Predict the structure.
Amino acid sequence: MGKLQIEYKPISEVIPYDRNPRQNDDAVQYVAESIKAFGFINPILLDASGTIMAGHTRLKAAKQLGMKEVPVVYVDDLTEEQAKAFRLADNKTAEFAEWDAALLEQELADILDLDMSLFGFEDGSSLGDELLDDKYTLAVNIPQYEITGDCPTIAEMVDEDKSRELIAEIQQADVTEEEKAFLIAAAYRHNVFNYRNIAEYYAHATPEMQRLMEKSALVIIDVDNAIANGYATLMADVLDMMEERDAE
């Protein structure tokens, strides 16, 4: 394999792979903000025919920003089968990365002049519920939470302010009762859960409450480790979120 060379190509000539299995629309805005803030420093990879191997999200972001050309690198020494395999492998390997919560918080705390919420971090100064909100793993080697504090209150486990405001607005709206019921059910999606406090509460809860919390996927328990170590285990890190890494 020779040295890879970066060149600039008109955006209209970059061909998306029409069988791309990765859904990436939710990432486009964050990638666009990254390009605006730092420049287009991660070229799109193309096969010999000019079809994208890696970089579909970057292409969409560039189009959103009105760019006329983008940096590309041709990887033209792979067979068609190897190119297909690379597209899948490049996405799949990203799923095995994890955040170190403590180091991430330190890094974010050092960033004072950039709004990190533009890149997917909700508050820009801590780990953020965006990493804890809706992604879980059943892997045995999941993070463990050692009990150290007092039992939190229910109010300390969930912030319902936004959903309550939305529900109040829905209840006053001029829509049918059936529509109100649907919108109210959807409004609960805006609840923000504090998973550290949830793990602490779980450790103090009755067996029945623990069972229901597990069934609700508020905590993910490795039973063997929990018995052996006396820990409540919390899926506090999400494997499939790397801000600025494209979901090609």
Q: What stands out?
A: Residues 6-94 form a domain with the Conserved hypothetical protein from pyrococcus furiosus pfu- 392566-001, ParB domain fold (CATH 3.90.1530.10). The chain has two domains: 6-94, 101-157+194-233. The chain has nine helices and eight strands.
